[in-house]
Design a protein that fits this description.
Length: 666
C-alpha cells in the first residue's frame, strides 16, 4: 500500500480524499494556488505545496506544476478528484512516465471514454443505444446550424472534453444554435483547454440516471446501483439520490450490466460512472462515461456501505476487489443537496465573498438516520471567483425515501450560512415540492416549476400558523428579557401582555399567549391552539423547538418590531405587535424602491468579456447587450425591452461588482 499520496485538486473533494487516506494510514500532500493559501484542504493535509497564481489555468491544471510538486513531496500516487486534470490523458501519461501511480483508470480508458465523441462511437460499436447526433468535429457556427437543422431541434451543443455543465447549451432554433456554439466553444477552451464541440438530439422530458462501476486490475468489474440526477439547473446537477425512484429491478440490472460491458470493452479499472438518459418508458440511452469519481458519489456510498475513495486507492495499489456483484446490496435511501454560492433570488447568479457564518448541521450516523456534510470551506473563509461555486454537499440517509427527505429538510433548516448568496432556500423548496416528493421529476423539473425564476416560497397554511405560534412565543421571551434591563426609573415597571398581532406572509393573526415552565400555549382568534416548547434565547440565530410535538427549526434575525425568519425555503419578515401598535403600523406608508428600469446592472461579480452594442444604438427586447464571465461560466445579459443605449460605463476586461451600472438607456 502507498505511504504518501498527493491530491491534485482543491475544495471539498480534496478534503474528502484526505479523510479516507487518513483512515487508511496514508500521508497526504495538498497543492494550493495563491487564492487557496488558507484553504481547509491545505490545513487538513500532512503537507502542502504552492503551485501558482489563483487562475486554474496557471495552477491546478498546469501538469508541469503538479509534477514538480510530486517530485518535491516524494508522493507515490496521485488522486485527481474530479474536474481539473482528472480526465486528462496527458496527465496520466506524465505520471506513468514518472513511475507514479494514478488513482484512476488507465490512460487508454481515459482517452477512449473521457472524450465524448470517441466514447459515443465506441458505445455504438458495442451495441449500446445512443442518442442521435453528429459525432464529427464541427468547424464553425454555420456548420453547427446546418447539423442542428438536420438532426432536428431541440439539440444539445456540448464540449467534447466538457463536464459539470460547462461548455453546454440547448438550442431550439438556428439563432440559438449559432450563439450557443460560440459560447460553448469559448467556455470549453477556457475551462478545459479543448474547444471541440459536438451536437446531439435533446431528448425532451428525460431523466438523468447514472450507474456507478468499480473495476480492479484482475478482471473484476461491478456495478453499485444507480443515482438519480434529474434535478438540474443549466445542466448542473443540484440534487441527487440513490436509488432512483423511477427504476425497477429489471431495468437497473440491464443498465448495470450494460455499463459493466462498456467498461470492460475499454479495459477500465478504478471507479467510473456511465451516464444514461432514460425516457418515460424506461428506455435508456448512453450519454457519456465519466472516467473519475463523481461529485455525487456519497449517495452510493451511503446505500452500499462501500468507500469508493478507499477502493480507488486499493485498486491503484494493485489489490483485488474483496467483494463480488452478489455482495452488493442496496440498503435504504440517500439524498445529496449541493450547496452553491449563488443567489437563487437573482436567477442563481454566482456570489463571492467571506463566509461570516458557516455552521453546518451536526453530522450523525445511527441505524435509523445519517447526516453527512462533505465540505471544503470554513467560517471566516472566502469564496473565490476563480473556482466552482460549490460550498458543500449535504447528504442524508434513511431506511425509506420519505425518511431521507425528512432528514434533509431538517438538515437544511439547521444549516447556517451568512455573508454570501446561497441556494439553501431553493434546496428546501425542492424538498417540499409535491413532484419531487412523489419522485416524478425530469431534467426539466426546475425550468418547468420555476419558469420565471425562484422568488421564494410561501408557507402552506398549517406551516405558516406553526411558524406564527413559534414567533409569538419567541417575542414573549424577548419582551421578558427587555423588562429586566437594569437602570430603570423607580416605580416604572414594564409588564408583558398576553395579546399580540402577528403579521407574516401578508396575513394578520391575533393571538393570546399563556406560558408555564415547560413552554407556551398560543391561542389564535379562531380558538385553535399550538403548544410551543423550546429553549431559544434572544440573540441566538437558530431556534430549535417543537410545535405540538413536531420539530421546527427557524433561522432567526432581529428586525424592528419582530424577526426575519427563514424556514423550509421561505424568507419572511414577521412582525409581532400589540393591538394598538398594529393599528398604527397599518397606517404607515410604504417606501417605494428606486427605479432602475433604465439601467443595466451587473447581476453578479465577474469580468466583462464583450459589449455587443454601442452608444446611440437601438436595441430590441431579448437582444444580447454584453457578456459577463463569472466562475468559469459565460452569462449573456439581454435587453428586457426596446430602447436606445444612452451611455456605456464599462468595457471589456473590466471587473464588475454586483449592481455596477454597465450601461444606461434613454
Amino acid at each position: 500500500m502507498f505511504k504518501k499520496i498527493l491530491i491534485a485538486n482543491r475544495g471539498e473533494i480534496a478534503c474528502r480524499v484526505i479523510k479516507t487516506a487518513r483512515k487508511m494510514g496514508i500521508a497526504t500532500v495538498a497543492v494550493y494556488s495563491d487564492a487557496d493559501k488558507n484553504a481547509l484542504h491545505v490545513e487538513m493535509a500532512d503537507e502542502a505545496i504552492h503551485i501558482g497564481p489563483a487562475p486554474a489555468n496557471q495552477s491546478y491544471i498546469v501538469i508541469d506544476r503538479i509534477m514538480a510538486a510530486i517530485r518535491e513531496s516524494g508522493a507515490e500516487a496521485v488522486h485527481p478528484g474530479y474536474g481539473f486534470l482528472s480526465e486528462n490523458p496527458k496527465f496520466a501519461e506524465a505520471l506513468e512516465q514518472a513511475g507514479v501511480a494514478f488513482i484512476g483508470p488507465p490512460r487508454g480508458a481515459i482517452e477512449a471514454m473521457g472524450d465524448k465523441i470517441t466514447s459515443k462511437k465506441l458505445a455504438q460499436e458495442a451495441g449500446v443505444n445512443t442518442v442521435p447526433g453528429y459525432m464529427g468535429l464541427i468547424e464553425d457556427a454555420e456548420e453547427a446550424v446546418r447539423i442542428s437543422s438536420e438532426i432536428g431541434y431541440p439539440v444539445m451543443i456540448k464540449a467534447s472534453a466538457g463536464g459539470g455543465g460547462k461548455g453546454m447549451r440547448i438550442a431550439w432554433n438556428d439563432a440559438e444554435a449559432r450563439e450557443g456554439f460560440q459560447s460553448s466553444k469559448n467556455e470549453a477552451a477556457s475551462s478545459f483547454g479543448d474547444d471541440r464541440i459536438f451536437i446531439e438530439k435533446f431528448v425532451t422530458q428525460p431523466r438523468h440516471i447514472e450507474i456507478q462501476v468499480l473495476a480492479d486490475q484482475h478482471g473484476t468489474c461491478l456495478y453499485l446501483g444507480e443515482r438519480e440526477c434529474s434535478i438540474q439547473r443549466r445542466n448542473q446537477k443540484v440534487i441527487e439520490e440513490a436509488p432512483s425512484p423511477f427504476l425497477d429491478a429489471e431495468t437497473r440490472k440491464r443498465m448495470g450490466e450494460q455499463a459493466v460491458a462498456l467498461a470492460q470493452a475499454v479495459g477500465y479499472t478504478s471507479a467510473g460512472t456511465v451516464e444514461f438518459i432514460v425516457d418515460g418508458e424506461k428506455n435508456f440511452y448512453f450519454l457519456e462515461m465519466n472516467t473519475r469519481l463523481q461529485v455525487e458519489h456519497p449517495v452510493t456510498e451511503l446505500i452500499t456501505g462501500v468507500d469508493l475513495v478507499e477502493q480507488m486507492i486499493r485498486v491503484a495499489a494493485g489489490e483485488k476487489l474483496s467483494f463480488g456483484q452478489d455482495d452488493v446490496k442496496l440498503d435504504g435511501w440517500a439524498i445529496e443537496s449541493r450547496l452553491y454560492a449563488e443567489d437563487p433570488y437573482r436567477n442563481f447568479l454566482p456570489s463571492i465573498g467571506r463566509l461570516t457564518r458557516y455552521r453546518p448541521p451536526q453530522e450523525l450516523a445511527t441505524p435509523g438516520a445519517v447526516v453527512r456534510n462533505d465540505t471544503g470551506v470554513f467560517e471566516g473563509g472566502e469564496i473565490s471567483m476563480y473556482y466552482d461555486p460549490m460550498i458543500a454537499k449535504l447528504c442524508t440517509w434513511g431506511p425509506t425515501r420519505a425518511e431521507a427527505i425528512e432528514g434533509m429538510r431538517q438538515a437544511l433548516d439547521g444549516f447556517e450560512v451568512e455573508g454570501i448568496g446561497h441556494n439553501l432556500p431553493f434546496l428546501s423548496a425542492v424538498m417540499e415540492h409535491p413532484k419531487f416528493v412523489a419522485g416524478e421529476m425530469t431534467t426539466a423539473f426546475i425550468a418547468e416549476e420555476w419558469p420565471e425564476g425562484f422568488d421564494g416560497v410561501a408557507l402552506v397554511p398549517d406551516a405558516l400558523r406553526r411558524m406564527v405560534a413559534a414567533a409569538a412565543a419567541m417575542h414573549r421571551v424577548a419582551e421578558i428579557r427587555r423588562t429586566r434591563i437594569s437602570g430603570r426609573m423607580d416605580n416604572h415597571e414594564r409588564k408583558v401582555g398576553t395579546d399580540w398581532i402577528v403579521t407574516a406572509q401578508g396575513e394578520r393573526f391575533a393571538v393570546a399567549i399563556s406560558a408555564d415552565r415547560e413552554g407556551a400555549t398560543v391561542r389564535f382568534d379562531d380558538g385553535t391552539t399550538h403548544r410551543v416548547v423550546g429553549s431559544w434565547t434572544p440573540g441566538q440565530p437558530l431556534a430549535r423547538m417543537t410545535v405540538d410535538g413536531a420539530p421546527l427549526t427557524l433561522k432567526v434575525g432581529k428586525i424592528t418590531g419582530g424577526f426575519r425568519i427563514r424556514t423550509r425555503g421561505a424568507d419572511l419578515k414577521v412582525h409581532v405587535r400589540t393591538p394598538r401598535q398594529a393599528e398604527l403600523a397599518a397606517r404607515m406608508p410604504e417606501k417605494a424602491p428606486p427605479d432602475t428600469s433604465r439601467l443595466l446592472l451587473c447581476p453578479m461579480p465577474g469580468l466583462l468579456v464583450r459589449v455587443e452594442v454601442e452608444e446611440g444604438a437601438e436595441v430590441q427586447e431579448g437582444q444580447a447587450l454584453c457578456t459577463v464571465e463569472a466562475m468559469k461560466m459565460e452569462n449573456i445579459l439581454r435587453a428586457e425591452r426596446r430602447g436606445v443605449v444612452a451611455q456605456i460605463n464599462a468595457g471589456p476586461g473590466d471587473s464588475l461588482a454586483v449592481d455596477d451600472v454597465i450601461m444606461e438607456f434613454e
